Amino acid sequence: MRYRLLALDLDGTLMTTEKKVTDYTKKVLLRAQEAGVRIALTSGRPVPGVKPIADLLKLPQFGGYVAACNGGRIYDCATGENLYEEFLPQNLIPKLCAFGVENNVTMVVYHEDELITQQAESRYARFDASVNHMKIRVCKELSAAIQFPIYKFLMAADPPVIEKLILKAQKEFLECSVYRSDPYYMEFMPLGGNKAKALEALLNHLGWKREKLMACGDGFNDVSMIKYAGLGVAMENAQKPVLEVADDVTLSNDEDGVAKAVEKYCFS
Fold first, then answer.
1. Which residues are registered as beta bridge partners of 6?
2. Cβ distance 149 to 90 under 8 Å?
3. pTM of the model
4. CATH 3.40.50.1000 in the chain, residues?
């Protein structure tokens, strides 16, 4: 089989605009797994936000994976074990919180089944909690509340604000990786941490070469895995940097683009 590992971003890729997986795409992905393809759902979401989709696609039964938090954690759906984890340096947390307060953005971190933020009224925090099936915990002094390791630190604001802040943050925080995921999100990850690095760790675990990896994505945070994969497929609705590095472009997320790509490359 040409491709043995299929890495799929969720929002804007596998899922429609209504945040659903169509019956057609589900059928194609179940067929791929029956044929021996392993699936890794590779998302900026934390594990609780991905598990319902993993269960829908029967990843626990077929031995699939969740690469959560943009590659900060690889979760084995069959065993419930973490195969890989990478955390932000704890001494960066106060500096990140100060930067967020100074620039008046919504700050978000995940801990178990909670989304912790300093702005309960933020539409970005409420939306993120809803999508990820998490309850919100409000902490005005966020820096003092984060007394546990975190995979990533998220800042959210209107796209023009994030576009302006991203260069400032990248210059100020050389000890970590800073990039946009969606236009309204800025993510702080361990230095060098991204989806490609996590997928490399998963391939090493499986004993497979990157040529066996096919990846589908649409967002800024998918660029690394699209470039790294043996075959990188951009959605028709993808951001320009993704389209520029992709080996192929499939239909949009509202047109079963993932299913069409899998049929084209995994079943031919």
1. 39, 214
2. yes
3. 0.90
4. 5-86+193-266
Nearest to 136 by CA among 118, 156, 161: 118
Mean pLDDT of 200-214: 97
Task: Quickly tell me which residue has 């998302």 as its tokens.
Answer: 43
> In this structure, which long-range contacts are made by residues 132-136, counting pairs with CB atoms below 8 Å and at least 24 apart in sequence?
132/45, 132/46, 132/48, 132/49, 133/48, 133/49, 133/52, 134/46, 134/48, 134/49, 134/110
Q: Does 3.40.50.1000 match the CATH number of domain 5-86+193-266?
A: yes
Q: What is the pLDDT of residues 96-133, one digit of tens each?
A: 999 999 999 999 999 999 999 999 789 999 999 999 99
Residue 73: pLDDT band (50, 70, 90) is: very high
pLDDT (0 to 100) of residue 147: 92
Q: Specify the CATH architecture of the domain 90-190.
A: 2-Layer Sandwich (3.30)
Q: Where does CATH 3.30.1240.10 sit in the chain? A: 90-190
**What pLDDT, on the 0 to 100 scale, is given for residue 183?**
85
R_g of the chain, CA atoms, integer Å: 18
Looking at beta carbons, which pairs linking 120-124 to residues 24 or more positions away fall under 8 Å?
122/156, 124/156, 124/157, 124/184, 124/185
